[in-house]
Write a structure and sequence with these properties.
alpha/beta; 2 domains
Length: about 240
C-alpha cells in the first residue's frame, strides 16, 4: 500500500494561533508545497536508512501526516506558546522545528537559511541543509518511538546533549569535523556524567565517536540507563 503523503499547510499568524489547523495551499504556493512534500518524504527515508545502518529496525509506519510551515522563528514561537499556554520566552529564539503528535512544525526554507547563516557562518549552506533540518526533527520523533517501544518511556532517550547529537548524526548534519574522537577524549569530555561544552555540531561529533567505538545500538541502550555514559567505558570497543 502506498504510504500517505503529509498534508502541507501554511502558518498565517493570528489565524493559525487561534485555530492551529491545516488547510489547503493556495494555487500560487503549490510549487513550494510540492518541494516541501518531497523534502519531508526524503527526510523520513533518510531517518529509516539511518536507523537500519545502525542495525535498528524502525518501529513505526509513518512519522508525520501533516506539516505546518511558519514564515519565521518569531511567528512559530508566538503560535506554539499560545497553543501550550506558556510564555513565548520559554521557546528559544532560534526555534526551527519540532514534531508534536504526527504534525511537523517547521520554519520556512528561507527563514532557516537566514537562521543557519547567523548561527553557523563557517558551515556551508546547501540544497540538502533544509532537508537535514527536517530529518533532524523526524529523528527526535523516531527516537521517541524507539525508546517507548524498547523501554516504555521517552525518558529513555537519554540526556539532551545525547538525543540532540543523535539527531545531528542521523540527519547527516555537520559531517566534516575531522578525525573521530578517541575513547580517551570521550571520557575526558563526557565522563562522570558531564554535559559537554559546545553546540549541536559538537554533540553530533561526540555521538558519532561513541557509535564508532561502541555501536549505536549499545549507546542508545546505555543512554536510557542511570550512569550514562560511564558504563560504556567497560564495554569492548568495536
Amino acid at each position: 500500500m502506498r504510504p500517505r503523503t503529509p498534508r502541507i499547510s501554511l502558518a498565517l499568524g493570528a489565524l493559525l494561533a487561534a485555530v492551529l489547523a491545516a488547510f489547503a495551499l493556495p494555487a500560487a504556493a503549490a510549487p513550494a508545497g510540492d518541494e516541501l512534500e518531497a523534502d519531508v518524504q526524503a527526510a523520513e527515508q533518510d531517518v529509516v536508512a539511518c536507523f537500519r545502518s545502525y542495525g535498528l529496525e524502525p518501529p513505526w509506519d509513518r512519522l508525520v501526516d501533516e506539516v505546518t510551515v511558519f514564515p519565521s522563528p518569531d511567528e512559530a514561537r508566538r503560535v506554539l506558546a499560545r497553543r501550550h499556554h506558556i510564555p513565548v520566552e520559554e521557546i528559544p529564539p532560534t526555534f526551527s522545528g519540532t514534531v508534536e503528535g504526527r504534525t511537523l512544525y517547521v520554519i520556512s526554507r528561507d527563514a532557516y537559511e537566514r537562521l543557519w547563516r547567523s548561527l553557523y557562518p563557517a558551515a556551508p549552506w546547501s540544497e540538502a541543509t533544509y532537508r537535514q533540518l527536517i530529518a533532524h526533527e523526524l529523528t527526535h520523533k523516531a527516537h521517541e518511538n524507539w525508546a517507548r517501544a524498547r523501554f516504555g518511556t521517552i525518558d529513555a532517550m537519554g540526556p539532551a546533549w545525547f538525543y540532540e547529537g543523535f539527531a545531528v548524526a542521523c540527519a547527516g548534519q555537520f559531517p566534516d569535523q575531522g578525525p573521530l574522537m578517541s575513547p580517551q577524549a570521550l571520557q575526558a569530555e563526557i565522563g562522570g556524567g558531564r554535559t559537554p561544552a559546545g553546540s549541536y555540531p559538537e554533540y553530533g561529533r561526540i555521538v558519532r565517536a561513541l557509535a564508532a567505538a561502541y555501536g549505536m545500538e549499545a549507546v542508545l541502550d546505555e543512554a536510557a540507563r542511570p550512569g550514562f555514559p560511564d558504563q560504556l567505558w567497560t564495554r569492548a570497543r568495536r
